[in-house]
Design a protein that fits this description.
mainly alpha
């Protein structure tokens, strides 16, 4: 028999924090900081490869290595945390994330950088999985949905803004300065969590059987399948978005940062739209996102040979991907409402496994066959996500 049957069974009953939304915002900043750190190399890939004398495919490992580490560590994180105070665990992981960014900024070679990115992966799996289960402990029951949206809004915002902001800093001050700036951001987020979060002790712990027992749920398995395929297809292409914009769309380097920022704004709009739709039903929004994401990748091939076509395709791409995190997370939480932390750990694992697989496969294809071949394959992998997305059904309401 498992030690945990619901999120509430692992926590010690305590009063809510005096300023609950400050605490929720701090948790959201935690997910923002770790996902931004993970995404940072995408907009800096060309500069990193040139400075450290590595190929684009090898530099792309700066994405796949932390993602793979996070995929392996996310389920282990909630198990290893045991009954420890979640506030202390989260703050410790933020301290490690700050150190990992500093190590990246100081990297003398590609091997050093990749070693630092392993630390990022450890933080990624732990912070995302643990922060995802905090909403019910910080706000009254009636506001848990809104608090969850804020916490996971950090993931969505980082996914669409982390790359363009990192690219802009890299263009102005160099890629090392981007990592150094991110270290400072992580330190400030650590201070915010130290100040805002109350003590969050737990009355029990989660066993591995609690986590992997969730795989018996049909809706959760389908949601994880969509996650793996959709994220893999996206990152096969997006890891190399800067070389695509410069090599395929022939955009001048000065325009890359602003266009990635436009991509981010489109992604935020897509996030809010998908979030509103996902509150009613998870399946149809996912189907629309899959089709739009595949179409945007094909548009890069068909119309992206010119600067204007490439810019338009990138904006569509951002709008489509912006809705991915909130739609998938809503799907997972609906499938396993009694084990939010365990379900979130599996979601984080699948999401990051998709990043690792997509960026690694993309690196092999780019090095061996070029950017256009990689875009075609990425679109094909994305389309495959239609099958599980179409099979997702809303959970049955309990009978009176």
């Amino acid at each position: 028999m498992s030690t945990t049957t619901s999120p509430s069974s692992t926590e010690t009953r305590r009063d809510k924090p005096a300023r609950p939304w400050f605490a929720v915002a701090a948790a959201g900043l935690s997910t923002f900081s770790v996902v931004t750190t993970e995404m940072l190399p995408v907009g800096l890939l060309t500069r990193i490869a040139a400075d450290l004398q590595a190929s684009a495919g090898t530099a792309g490992l700066a994405m796949s290595i932390p993602a793979l580490t996070a995929a392996l560590f996310a389920p282990a994180a909630v198990v290893a945390a045991g009954a420890r105070d979640r506030r202390r665990v989260l703050i410790g992981l933020l301290a490690l994330l700050t150190a990992a960014n500093l190590a990246s900024a100081l990297a003398p070679g590609i091997a050093w950088l990749l070693a630092a990115r392993i630390l990022v992966g450890l933080c990624m799996g732990g912070i995302w999985a643990i922060a995802g289960g905090l909403a019910a402990r910080l706000v009254p029951p009636a506001r848990v949905g809104a608090a969850t949206a804020v916490i996971f809004g950090g993931v969505a915002t980082a996914s669409v803004l982390g790359v363009p902001l990192g690219a802009l800093v890299g263009d102005l001050l160099g890629w090392r300065s981007a990592f150094a700036a991110m270290a400072l951001v992580c330190l400030l987020v650590l201070a915010a969590n130290w100040r805002a979060l109350p003590a969050l002790p737990t009355a029990g712990s989660i066993r591995p059987s609690d986590i992997f027992g969730q795989m018996r749920i049909d809706g959760l398995r389908l949601g994880l399948a969509v996650t793996l395929l959709l994220v893999s297809g996206h990152f096969m292409a997006f890891t190399f978005v800067r070389p695509i914009l410069q090599g395929v769309s022939h955009l001048a380097e000065i325009w890359v940062g602003p266009l990635l920022f436009a991509y981010g704004l489109a992604g935020i709009a897509g996030n809010f739209l998908a979030g509103a739709l996902a509150q009613r039903e998870a399946g149809p929004p996912l189907v629309v996102i899959v089709v739009a994401l595949a179409a945007s990748l094909l548009l890069v091939i068909g119309a992206g040979g010119s600067p204007t076509g490439g810019a338009l395709a990138l904006v569509l791409w951002g709008g489509a991907y912006g809705g991915v995190s909130v739609s998938l997370q809503t799907c997972i939480m609906r499938a396993a409402p009694g084990m939010v932390e365990a379900g979130t750990a599996l979601f984080v694992a699948a999401f990051n496994l998709g990043i690792a697989a997509g960026s690694a496969a993309g690196g092999l294809v780019v090095d061996g066959h070029g950017l256009t071949a990689n875009l075609i394959l990425a679109a094909g992998v994305t389309i495959m996500a239609l099958v599980p997305a179409l099979l997702i059904r809303p959970p049955e309401s309990p009978r009176p």
